[in-house]
Amino acid sequence: MRRLAARLLTLLAMVTGVTAAPAQAAVASVDPTSFPLGTDPNQSWYSGHYPILWTNTQYKMLYANFGHNAMDYGSDTRLSSTFASPTQNRFLIDGLKWLGGAGGGPSPTGPISETAWYSLADNANGACVDARAAATANGTPIQQYACNGTTAQQFQFRPTDSGYTRIAIRRDPQQFVDVTGVSTAENAPLQLWSYGGGGNQQWLPIREASGRYHFTARHSGKCLSATGGTANSVQLVQRACDNSAAQSFDLAAQP
To answer: Per-residue pLDDT averaged across 15-31, rounded?
Structure first.
């Protein structure tokens, strides 16, 4: 669960109180700010401790108490999607990997290796940095997307000078994360582009106390940033560095 954001948005299947057995370990529970839960006054919850993710210290298992879609049963219309939350999806994928004995590698404890490939998960929502539609052509948007372990979400940090790196994508290592149009503007979008030596293609990795990193563009001094929202396919941008979770990324080495 190390790569999950501190809070995640999910859909509850049901809400029930849990009497914890000695070997039970809650991973996540309903945030108090989410109450009240429910649309039926006779089936609503206003307070309490309600785990929605838990495991057992005596067995290798995970239990997830979420996932039912909201429905308008009168018209048989679905009102939500089980897989609308990238952070929830990360839990499902990482949980399956853990149960199968796999999973992403550890975050770097020292300098980022220039030969390793890493996924970058945003601390605001748990989504991964991703090349849209797994494309590699010049101009391909760099976006946030539910982590899926593909090479469209794996990057390598190749040193230039003075601590700066260029960020190559594994699907085509000749393509790099680039600030569109060499812009220095706030919210300028990010894309893939073949390397030309510009400062808009060079990023300074700065390690945070948490072990996560933020990345500063050489030409603008602005930070690589997500929006903080949870939707898939939102393009990443550069923004003034503000120490927010949307600019803080967890690196996990990939095989």
So the answer is: 61
